[in-house]
Design a protein that fits this description.
- The structure is a single chain.
- The protein is of the alpha/beta class and 284 residues long.
- It has 12 helices and 9 strands.
- The protein has 2 domains: 208 residues, 3-Layer(aba) Sandwich (Rossmann fold); 64 residues, Helicase, Ruva Protein, domain 3.
- 39% of the residues lie in helices and 17% in strands.
- The chain is elongated.
- The termini are far apart.
Length: 284
């Protein structure tokens, strides 16, 4: 970014003033909680790595707190997707100041095919609406290699599930699927007071880097079916929770004890079960 553009962005009114001028208040129905502290948003932007090549995609920019930070930290091409039409007025001065480096797409991120937006390398950096955050992530991970990285804010409880290891209380289906496809680390945690309005929960920023190939060979749909059945009855032995998919025979084929419980299995073991399920159904 040129010094002139950075100066234009720095000269914009503070976010609280921009929000007031646009008559823009957070809507609970859209899961909106605005992060207005530029020090925090710049920290998040820096954690996404180099922004000076390819495209940076933001979902739910709202009044533009994180958007400003991305541009200040050197993003050369930002595409912001926002379903709330009121945001356009609040973001208009920032779009002008960015001099072509910021494009606003008005639409629902659940329906926008972001894997083909902009140019590679493609990264997502977003304070996600918490009510659709998991759905958005799993949708993007249908084509994980379309992204260099995903730096995303979740409720802390969801972030814990993304990062959990076997035997952790938070370990479950989401842990297996995400870590099978990505490496993941927590960047930072934020208290409710960091947001306007304040949510009732702590938040975490997680950086995901899609693997060139999944960590272990397996069919995704088979793995989804196995983990859904296993963690659907997580306190039961696998011989019971997987009964509908083959039970003892399936477990024997995968080399896993029928008395094991899902929270103890590694991702490699879940993949063996998925492969056994695929083999079983192919033979039918």
């Amino acid at each position: 970014m040129t010094d002139a553009v950075a100066a234009r962005i720095a000269a914009l009114p503070p976010l609280r003033e921009a929000i007031a001028a646009a008559g823009f208040s957070a809507k609970k129905s859209l899961g909106q909680n605005f992060l207005l502290d530029l020090n925090l948003t710049r920290r998040i932007a820096r954690s996404a790595g180099s922004l000076d090549r390819g495209t940076t995609i933001e979902v739910g920019p709202g009044p533009g707190g994180l958007t400003r930070a991305l541009l200040i930290e050197g993003a050369l091409d930002v595409i912001a997707i926002e379903r709330d039409a009121r945001a356009a007025a609040a973001l208009a001065p920032l779009v002008e100041a960015a001099e072509g480096r910021l494009r606003l797409v008005e639409g629902d991120a659940l329906e926008v095919g972001i894997a083909s937006l902009g140019s590679e390398p493609r990264r997502v950096v977003a304070n996600l609406p918490y009510n659709v955050a998991t759905r958005l992530l799993l949708g993007w991970l249908e084509t994980p290699t379309a992204f260099e990285s995903l730096t995303l804010m979740f409720q802390k409880e969801v972030a814990d599930r993304l990062l959990a290891a076997p035997a952790d209380d938070a370990y479950g289906r989401l842990s297996v699927l995400v870590q099978w496809l990505c490496t993941a680390r927590r960047v930072t945690e934020l208290p409710p007071s960091a947001f306007t309005p304040s949510p009732k929960v702590w938040s975490s920023v997680v950086r995901l880097e899609p693997r060139p190939e999944p960590s272990h060979p397996a069919d995704r749909r088979a793995l989804e079916r196995i983990t859904e059945a296993a963690f659907g009855q997580r306190r039961k032995m696998l011989r019971q929770s997987l009964k509908g998919l083959g039970g003892d025979a399936l477990l024997e084929a995968a080399g896993i004890a029928p008395t094991d419980r899902p929270e103890r299995l590694t991702i490699a073991e879940f993949c063996r079960l998925a492969n056994a399920l695929t083999d079983r159904e192919t033979r039918r």
